[in-house]
């Protein structure tokens, strides 16, 4: 028996499902078609959040938990009455996402679900000094035919990031080193390997060690798909010191072989406005270039660039968001090996 799904094309219309009743232990599944460089925002609300509960999950087109929301989100009763998941443009994977809303085992629940794309798609330009804003679908939220997408552009400095090309030797672990800046509150490590390599692995782990060689609490996770993201809260004792990130593959065949992958280390913890925002208007089918502000001076490890978030907000509150690395001179000490 085959299952046929008919996804909602969010470039053509907004998904809005009001007061959907979900039976005990049942799952209401929504399939959402999206495009590259768009921003998706999905909101699930319990009208009666005082007495009802639900669990929200979002999956990428390949079935992996969404990198923007890897964990289940519980809503209702002692938790918040609604959950909003935003998938930024740099995290968007073109295809069909699956949004699941799960009722508790012994009680039905009623939810209202809304999902939409932002007003424009935001793609990085080849020069890296700006973003190309293009219309989504018909041009506005919900894909209004022939409409012009308008919004206000704002920028925020959110952290620092560096990308690495990994040339693995085979079975031995590969490692990177970076000094966490004093301002950092959180650390993210992305690892992506080719799909054909992933099929040859039985295990792949990411581990973070402090300057004494001790494994950091919460700093060990398996990579369960060809793309994995580790998140780590940084205590004061972990900032200002070198941290080692280790990638350890386990091949199905005993000897393994050389392999390649891409890693990104990201330090977050800043929320500072930068640059001057401007109004934006993109006609249906059109494009416009958004110039990024100059990178501010920032204490960060060698080889890192400042991470600037660009946000386009319409008068109705629809948003398009992308984080971009902007090169800047580093004032901080701390080598990366």
Q: Overview of this structure, please?
A:
By secondary structure, the protein is mostly beta strands. It folds into two domains: 8-117, Jelly Rolls, CATH 2.60.120.380; 119-337, Jelly Rolls (Sandwich), CATH 2.60.120. The protein is built from one helix and 23 strands. Strands 12, 14, 17, 19, 20, 22 and 23 form a seven-stranded antiparallel sheet that branches. The chain has a five-stranded mixed sheet with strand order 1-3-8-5-6, with no helix packed on it. It is globular. Residues 138-144 and 329-337 have low confidence and may be disordered.
Class based on secondary structure composition and strand pairing: mainly beta
Helix content range: under 10%
Q: Tell me the radius of gyration.
A: 21 Å
Major β-sheet profile: 7 strands, antiparallel
Oligomer: single chain
Shape: globular
Number of helices: 1
What is the count of distinct domains?
2
Low-confidence stretches: 138-144, 329-337
Ends distance? 53 Å
Provide the β-strand percentage band. Answer: over 45%
Question: N-to-C SSE series?
Answer: EEEEEEEEEEEEEEHEEEEEEEEE
Q: Can you identify the CATH class of the largest domain?
A: Mainly Beta
Defining traits:
337 residues, mainly beta, Jelly Rolls, 2 domains, five-stranded mixed β-sheet, 1 helix, 1% helix, 52% strand
